[in-house]
Amino acid sequence: MKKIVFKESHKKKLKELILDFIGIAIGCAIAAAGMNAFLIPNQLAAGGVSGLGIVLLYVLGIPVGLTVLAFNIPLLIAEGKIMGVKYTVRTIFGAIMFSVLIEAFTFVPDVTGDIFLSAIYGGLTVGLGLGIVFRNRGTTGGTALAAQLLQKFTGLTMGQGIVGFDMVIIATSAIFFGAEIALYALVSLFVSSKVIDMVEQGFGQEKAAFIISNKSKEISEEILHQLGRGVTNITAKGGYTGEDREVLFAVVSRTEISKMKYLVYSQDENAFLIVTNASEVMGEGFKAVDPEEL
User: What residues form the membrane-spanning segments (predicted)?
Assistant: First the structure.
């Protein structure tokens, strides 16, 4: 019996790995096409190793894909020794696939001669592609991998490392291509980072609400019975009065937020309500969770 369970578990993991590889390949293809259609022909070195590759392409004639691969090889070897090959298998696949596809898609024409449109749509397509890669638990290596290793040895955060590398690359592009093109590259970097976040975290924009009221019990019951949403009661203390208060926390869909406001203020017109975006909500009543897919 144990042998059957092991085999089924092994098959499931293999299937998940194959699906992840397919997703990573699709993401790399989209990003590589965006690079060739918008960024490379317009000298937009929008951070990352691919940005460094664009600089070296125009300065030394070295293909972008070759730069990406050459930069990643020592990083992948270092991470493999530190983390183990099993941990880095998706990164190895993503890094190789991205570098190969950048060169394979050189036939993709420059879609627009407008540098601003190229910055925007280059950021969109590259961000979409990389977001799909990250959502499938992969990476394309590059500055993210360098920042990860830097974090381990220096204590710098991943964010600090990535931003630092990207700013150095964009500053380098300013030296060779001019400040104006570098500023457009910065726009592209900003767009791609936002799109990556959207794709990786999900497009659903549920709403998280914090409610403070003297009628918290009545409001809680209204949300539970009228909306069918769970409510969490949090014990808090007023900073000014020092009194113990009850804070209600609830998450609802975007279409339910107006009804929730009505339910709150129909019970207590003096209630204090904070509503904020919740970009990804998992669990009962929302997105089902499979630990193997996280």
Answer: 21-40, 52-77, 89-109, 115-134, 168-191
* Amino acid sitting at position 6: F
Please say whether the beta carbons of 24 and 31 come within 8 A.
Answer: no
Is the domain of 260 the same as that of 179?
Answer: no
Q: Structure tokens of 70? A: 């050459």
Is the same domain home to 210 and 186? Answer: no
List all residues 6 or more positions away from 119 whose beta carbon is below 8 Å from its beta carbon: 38, 42, 44, 46, 184, 185, 187, 188, 191
H-only helix segments in 84-114: 85-104
| 163-214 pLDDT, tens digit each | 788 888 999 999 999 999 999 999 998 898 888 877 876 666 678 889 998 8
The one-letter code for the residue type at 125 is T
* Co-location of 71 and 112 in the same domain: yes
CB 69 within 8 A of CB 32: no
Strand partners, 247: 212, 234
H or E stretch including 25? Answer: helix 2-34
Structure tokens at 229: 């949403």
**Angstrom distance (rounded) from CA 60 to CA 53:** 10
Closest CA to 255 of 290, 288, 229: 229
In the block, tokens 């204590």 appear at: 155
Q: What's the N-to-C CA distance of the chain in angstroms?
A: 28
**pTM for this structure?**
0.72
User: Apex CA 90: angle with CA 71 and CA 6, to 5°?
Assistant: 155
Q: In Å, how far from its chain's centre is CA 125?
A: 14
- Asked whether residue 35 falls in the same domain as residue 81, the answer is yes
Tell me, what CATH number does 221's domain have?
3.30.70.120
Eight-class DSSP state of 223: I
Residue 118 belongs to what H/E stretch? helix 115-135
The residues near 46 (Cβ < 8 Å, ≥ 6 apart) are 39, 119, 122, 123, 126, 170, 185, 186, 188, 189, 192
